[in-house]
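Consider the following input, taken from an annotated entry for Rust resistance kinase Lr10-like (Dioscorea cayennensis subsp. rotundata).
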Amino acid sequence: MILGFTFFFISRKAKRRRELRMKVEMFLASYKTTKPARYTYAGIKKITKRFKYKLGEGGFGSVYKGGLPNGIPVAVKMLEGSKSEGDDFINEVGTIGMIPHINIVRLLGFCSEGTRRALVYEFMPNESLEKYIFSRDANGNRLFGMDKLLGIAIGIARGVEYLHQGCDQRILHFDIKPHNILLDYDFNPKISDFGLAKLCSRDQSIVTMTAIRGTMGYIAPDIYSRNFGTVSYKSDVYSFGMLLLEMVGGRKNIDPLVDNQSAIYLPEWVYEQLIGGHSFQVAIEMMNNEEEIVRKLVIVALWCIQWSPNDRPTMTRVVQMLIGSLENLEIPPRPFVSSSDQDEDDTSFKGL
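Applying the prediction step yields:
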């Protein structure tokens, strides 16, 4: 009995892998453009000097530094596990490979040879935004001032706006977070990692999903439950809002090392500071002339994380708010269930 079940499981898994491999080959057969370029696995080994310089790793696999024959430095992501089996690879090549925008990381090439899959990106020397907003220098000071964070926020917003409005098909990223925002030589932000992305027509207001996509802490309530509304491009707006709050607060909205998340829920703390008329000066460690920037970022973020998708702005409106005057911004309504209400309603999604 056990032997029969094991054989069935292995056969089914092998069949799925064959189907995914065929899906990738069919996709590549229809992939007519010459950009990004397709490399052999031998070419990938040459680019990375046989994977000599490892930059990092994650659930997707490992990233190596390399160089093209013309001397351009690149980062090569070797996909492993489920991400190498087809869907995530197709998402990356089929979406990011066609996006020419200054705030979207460029996919320069890829490799699909047997079970080996690789993605070749432009090299981002300053790594991800996560490295800078959650860290301090030797003197305990934040690494970026608020004016720099505002510029980065505007760049990210313009990138997401382009995904939603600037392409032939609307691209929903579904994983906007600090780790997926890379910084170039001048610390300009570039959105990366399109493995969870979904394409839809620009006039499609509702997106069908069979599973939750994203990272805990950045996932919109409507992705968890349709009681909050339908899944749409507004889900990316919510993620962007949570990203903004982390940039301002300098800490994660959810800390996996802390059991009682309600005690550290960042949006509620920020909202109480805002409506209470308190100064963010001491709590956020900023200079006197940065108060206005902080308030702007906070107000925009709180609009973005409204629980109802209908109450969230479009990314075009978000860009306008970020580059506009603070005086023109309205204070948003409370975007979550308060702590007192949380005790009475265990079904709320306050910990998102």
